[in-house]
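Z., the sequence and structure:
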Amino acid sequence: MEPPPGAAESSKLRHVEKDILIPQIMRDRAKELCSDKVQAFTKCCQETGLLMVVKCRQENTALKDCLVGYYSDPLFYEECKTEYLKQREEYRATGIKKKRQKLTSNV
């Protein structure tokens, strides 16, 4: 039995999808998963003002480590890629774009 027309191209990714759209999903999800560190860094920055560069190093390092851990995880990339492909397939079927939920964080 042959796959339906367009099924082969449904899993192919364009350059913009690979380099921009999927990494954007990864950033958004990583910020959600590291929300405690995002909040700690934001709080530190708000409290210290211009001295944040010096005084918030520990919070910045913890946040960076958390985010980079997700960015460099191939399994996490595949999860985000699957999520994107599902959204794209839904859009192509319905023509209705799913609105991206905005984060309430200031980061």
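Confidence is low (pLDDT under 50) at residues 103-107. Helices lie at 7-10, 15-33, 35-48, 52-55, 57-71, 74-94.

Let me know what you think.
H.
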